[in-house]
Amino acid sequence: MTQKAKEKALNLVIVESPAKAKTIEKFLGKDFLVKSSYGHIRDLAKKDFGVDVSNNYQPQYVISSDKKDVVKELISLVQQSETVWLASDEDREGEAIAWHLYEVLGLTPAQTKRIVFHEITKEAILKAIKNPRPIDINLVDAQQARRVLDRLVGFELSPVLWKKVKPSLSAGRVQSVAVRLLVEREREINAFNADSAFRVVARFFVTDEDGKKHELRAELNHRFKTEEEAFQFLTHCKNGQFTVEQVTRKPFTKSPAAPFTTSTLQQEASRKLGFSVGQTMSVAQRLYEAGKITYMRTDSVNLADTAVSAAVQKIKSDMGEKYVQTRQFKTKSKGAQEAHEAIRPTYIDKDSVSGTAAEQKLYDLIYKRTLASQMSDARIERTNVNITVSGSTYKFHASGEVILFDGFLKMYIESSDVEKEDEEAPGFLPPLKEQDVLGLMAMEARERWTQKPPRYSEAALVRKLEEQGIGRPSTYAPTISTIQQRGYVVKEDRPGNPRKYRLVQLEGGEVKKSVKTENAGAERSKLFPTDIGMVVNDFLVKYFPNIVDYEFTAKVEKEFDQIAVGDVQWTKAIDQFYQPFHNQVEETLEKSERNTGERVLGTDPKTGKPVIVRIGRYGPMAQLGDTEAEDEKPAFASLTREQSIETITLEEALKLFELPRDLGLYEEKKVVVGIGRFGPYVRHDGKFASLKKGVDDPMEISLQRAIELIEEKRERDNKKIIKSFEEEPDLQILNGRWGPYIGYKGKNFKIPKEKDAEKLTLEECLKLVEDGGKKAPATKKATTKKKTTASGKNTTASKSTKAKKSAAKK
DNA sequence: CAGTGAGCGAGCTTCCGCTTGACTT
């Protein structure tokens, strides 16, 4: 490539993504060199806000540390080029990227052309090349306003939290609203009072002309409030006659869902494949880089014409002409910028790909959804049946569906979030006609509760944010990860609780009552706000209601639009926002109390001391006794993961003070059980072993079981050391989560995959340590901390990516 | 990385949106 550049790179095209660059280069031929900027190349400086508020909000831009090499290369290529084509996306951010490139690369208007395309097809690219335009500075200004606003909000608000709640917390236009949604939903759930009623379901039978019996399930059109009413109704039915009153048939059609956007892909991958949003994005990224799907960060539901015709071809040849029905979908989400296509297979005739299981499954989803979107409506007939009960005004109701023509259903059926336990998918009905008399097999009235509002899954939260126009396709996954990293939210399974329900059954001419138990409220992989999340949210809602308002983003987006069309100067818009906002910040710093979410639960009956819960330095805690009391210090205990300041009772809090507790002696040393930073544990001889979640209870655990845990832990620790050397006790070969590694003086070093860890000699190990040390010299000054992706655990220390990159090059 | 929770205070944390690798213990 540099070869080509040196010869005659007359035309340098710069796009945002390297995978895109590769594709486009193929379309453009040898006179064009296509390079990537890898997204934004500059950002606001981190120090001093990066915005000079006293100088008309002058932004201080610096080249991002991980983009220095990219910029250097682009600068040298520009010098060898006659024309530079800035081909970043056609949206606010893309325009800004073009402008930053223009500034940083020292381009002139004469040598620069700005081009845009919304799909990566040869026609679209060639057309774009024929229609260049200048950089739209108004659009750039709209982006600067967006960027500066987010910085001002984030960097003024977060320090308020450090002072008033806890260090290292954060607030921002997007994340704070995301947390608010979760907190408000949690409160709705806490305030929810389940109401119950008896739902009556009957199993009837009808005999056809051949004497064959067919079963029919039907539900009563009324739910009884009390068990007595239900009992009376069933008793009445013992001798009742059941007659088909009416049979109606109604045809209707169903249409396929639109092709995937980032948000809908995340939702469906979550529902159908159980992927987290981060997982979905990283799998999609790999498919994209391998050229198998189009760009995965998009808010557009549009398909390129070439893709539609490829889909038509494929549907025709696989399923026949009658399955074809092309459509143009329109986006419904607020603030969509539609710089790309919808997510679809690059080659629509490919119905599967090679790769990991996850890649194959996600591709399959994308393939089917894309094809289905261009397939015929399904035609369905629904049959409704009403059944009268002699001597009663209530009626039973049954419905069934018959698919007359499957259409797109042949390919793809969209899933839904709501699990309605009371409803069954309508199936087939036996042949029935009006005035048929039905026989009764059995009937039951089961107590059912109204359901609490559901907690958000990651993907459901993304959908909600998108609906409100908050956040962008590129930020959904990172936002979800940020609010978890800050400790505002945890993603968890909750087992649910047993709940009794009453049942009245009519069977064999007898009506009987019983009480049974079901499990209620179990949650799988849902987002729960933590106490910190709630306290921070309440603080922000109280002092900055305008910022965490659900409409805030929509409002500022309107301003940005006005800037983009040149009606408003961006610095003016920012000034109008910042003056009052800054006063709000100052006032809050001055007036507001420290917020610890403190709640007084009552007094301990044994000691008469007050019991309170609040957020302490190490998280939510309970406190027994006053801090002001002179004679003795209060006792403290951390809340467990499942407990919350908002819902804990006095009894539960008092229990916490019973820990740590002595279980007895083992090998002449004390065995103690307690709850620590990582949950319940047993301690023995200076070593800790975790209690098994859902199995062991720290209040109940026996000495015998504790010893088991200690022994298991010992076993694991023994396996941890693969090899050690007498000559060098600091060095050990250890067994870790990702396989064997070398531990040396508190640092860890990788063992190359091809080496057998057990056979390594001390010399070889020391060499690996030395090599590893060379690769990562200690440039601890690098202030940019790497964001980890999906898992959200931030365990990495600062690393020097720069040194590694340049080393890898040669 | 584990039984903490006062107060002192240095130095640090933090936003959103565009992009990929790097590489974990």
Give a quick rundown of the structure:
With 810 residues, the protein is α+β, with helices and mostly antiparallel strands. Helix 6 runs antiparallel to helix 16 (552-564) and helix 10 packs across helix 12 (357-372).
Summary tags:
810 residues; alpha+beta; Rossmann fold; Topoisomerase I, domain 2; Topoisomerase I, domain 4; 6-stranded antiparallel β-barrel; globular; disordered C terminus; DNA-binding; TOPRIM_dom
Structure report:
This protein is an alpha+beta fold. Among the domains are: 3-144 and 788-809, 3-Layer(aba) Sandwich (Rossmann fold); 166-192 and 452-583, Topoisomerase I, domain 2 (Orthogonal Bundle), CATH 1.10.460; 262-376, Topoisomerase I, domain 4; 599-656, no CATH class; 661-721, no CATH class. It is 35% helix and 25% strand. The strands form 8 sheets. Strands 9-10-13-12-11-14 form a 6-stranded antiparallel β-barrel. Strands 2-1-7-8 form a 4-stranded parallel β-sheet. Helix 4 (92-104) links the parallel strand 7 (83-86) and strand 8. The longest helix is centred in the N-terminal third of the chain and has 28 residues, at 137-164. The radius of gyration is 33 Å and the shape is globular. The structure holds one DNA strand of 25 nucleotides.
